[in-house]
Amino acid sequence: MTDGALRMRVFAFIALVLFGGLVARLWYLQGLEAQREELQQRAQTNVLEEVYEEAPRGRILDRNGRVIVDNKVVEVVTIDRGIVDDLDPVERGEMFLRLAIAISRSGRLTKVGDVVDQYGDRSYGPFERVPVAVDVNPELLVFLGERQDQFPGVNVVQRTVRSYPYGTTAAHLLGYVGPITRTEWQARNQLIDPDDPDAKTYQLNHEIGKTGVELVFEDELRGVPGTRFIEVDAGRNVVREYDYVPPVPGNDVWLSIDLDLQALTEQELATGLAAARSR
Predict the structure, then answer these.
(1) Are residues 145 and 24 in the same domain?
(2) Among residues 111, 149, 220, 230, which one has the fewest Cβ atoms lying within 10 Å of its Cβ?
(3) DSSP string for 109-174
(4) Beta-sheet pairing, 60-61 with 253-254
(5) Under a CB-based contact definition with an 8 Å cutoff, are residues 61 and 253 in contact?
(6) pTM
(7) Strand partners, 71
(8) Same domain (yes/no): 167, 187
């Protein structure tokens, strides 16, 4: 092989290597561009939804440390609006009817209109589970669990509710909790620093102290709600969930009353009133 032919082969090999490198570089850049466009498109179409989880309230105790107001965990039948929204209107109505019948047969009279009203309650976000029956019995849980195909979007979750180990004793002092009104919601949230990660924020479906100790010590009894972020696409489908922060329970409140003395006082008062009426 002559020197000229050898040089031509070397030149051809170098040119081939350079051309291959150029092709590989172009392919790599095209891949990066496609990935960048996909990320830009996701950023334009996907949105983040912040979902709140209400925290258990603090307990109320008498001067001796006996719990007068406690929390108990109950089972709650809920509707996942993100799933139910996608059902055909006729199918959705039939499912609501089946659900109302199932709840009623478990001992809790529920009309289909009650289920529809709860489903339409916009105080709950689009990705929050809307409660339709609280503190249900185990038989209903089994019934729904065995027929999940008949109840799309229906779930059973746990939540805490107030319980009263000593019944109505001191009820007029303790007060009660109930759903927050829009006026209460606006007033409370105006006092909250939105940049405080431990802020006890309120949502329109949360509960608040209405009277008595529950109202007076609301700031102490209320816990810090938990949060999580849900990424949803343009079709409102959940892509992923992340950054879950569990709720922090509220603080306990100790009262100066003695439960035994309070119960005795109420009993004597009731006896005296009954005697006065009988005269």
Answers:
(1) no
(2) 149
(3) ---HHHHHHHHT-TTS-TTSEEEEEES--HHHHHHHHTTGGGSTTEEEEEEEEEE-TTTTTTHHHH
(4) parallel
(5) yes
(6) 0.72
(7) 162
(8) yes
Kind and range of the H or E run holding 52: strand 47-53
* Structural contact between residues 212 and 176, judged by C-beta atoms closer than 8 angstroms: yes
One-letter identity of residue 69? V
Query: Do 72 and 64 form a contact (C-beta atoms < 8 A)?
Result: no
- What is the per-residue pLDDT across 221-257, written as a single tens digit (0 to 9) for each? 999 888 888 777 766 667 777 778 889 999 999 999 9
Same domain, 126 and 75: yes
pLDDT digits (tens, 9 = 90+) for 98-135: 999 999 988 888 898 998 988 888 778 777 788 898 88
Angle (nearest 5°) at CA 23 between 18 and 29: 125
Total domain count, the chain: 2
The answer to whether residues 183 and 194 belong to one domain is: yes
Q: Are strands 67-80 and 177-179 parallel, antiparallel or unpaired?
A: unpaired
In this structure, the answer to whether residues 23 and 142 fall within a common structural domain is no
Give the domain range for residue 25: 1-45
Q: Under a CB-based contact definition with an 8 Å cutoff, are residues 45 and 237 in contact?
A: no
Instruction: Scan for tokens 């529950």, then name that residue.
Output: 214
